[in-house]
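In line with agreed milestones, the collection of sequences with tokenised folds has grown. A representative record is reproduced below.
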Amino acid sequence: MPHSPEAVLKDLKAKKFAPIYFLEGDEPYFIDLISDYIEKNAIAEHEKGFNQLVMYGKDSQVNVILSNARKFPMMADRQVVIVKEAQSIPDLGKEDAQKLLISYVNNPLPSTILVFAHKHKKLDGRGSLKKELDKKTVFVNAEKVKDWLLIGWVESYFKDLGHQIESKAAQLLADSIGNNLEVITNEVGKMLINFPEPTKFTPDHISKYIGINKEYNNFELTKAIGYRDVMKANQIIQYFIQNPKSHPIIPIFSLLYNYFSKIALVHRAGPMPDNQLAGAIGVNPYGLKEYLAASKNFKLGKVIDVFAYIKEADLRFKGVDSGSMDEGEILRELVYKILH
């Protein structure tokens, strides 16, 4: 059973170290968080010269990694071997190498902490290697934070740092950046340099220090469309057109498709308690009111039409029947068709 990143970090901070960590999945933030913590804290600074080795997958065969893992620490209680970019180990998918690794997994050297940082992909679950790793190691499946959980994650992240953030500010941050935790934490880190004391952050802070316009952003666009606020939607589109580098058109197509997919799910779900409905369509309960209003403004037939409009706009962007239309004209026409 995979361990959660939060549980692993809790054990690490309590100085509970295991012989082998295998960190895999689509969310590199958690993989880096765990492997970096081990690299910085598992052994004392003065012991690292002889007892800490960082290897890179593309340059490392499995037998070489295990040969280093089997070494005894020098004048210390333990050694650390970290394999970064482990998904690039050349022979990791080969049967002989997997047998070697399984053999070590079943009899690891207790004085070694061996860490595999296997990013952006997962091992084949049908093979025996993954099953043995799951049973015998601290195995972490680092998944992307679901969209409807992202606001809560942002709020918890600020709390862990000794700060607070208003829900609307967290939503602005989440909707504008998406669930790329590495980007979110980097942007927040740059902002927090200006706030050494505990602070409660508002949309004004996010706008000023991270550069997300609190009036003209993805969240405000979908909100204006959902409430059929034609004037506000057109103002936001005009701002996007004037700032194309900050608001490229393809992610906007994806944004609108996902937004109307949730409206379609509201129609399909039918009457149910708000908390259940929020879970059924995959949104934070904080934002459910907007989707309920949007479902009244956009009947299911219109939602189906919107999907066709988005597909048509995407093809035009790719040069199909676009004539002389530029990106701005394609986007403006798409929003017009959605709202009228």
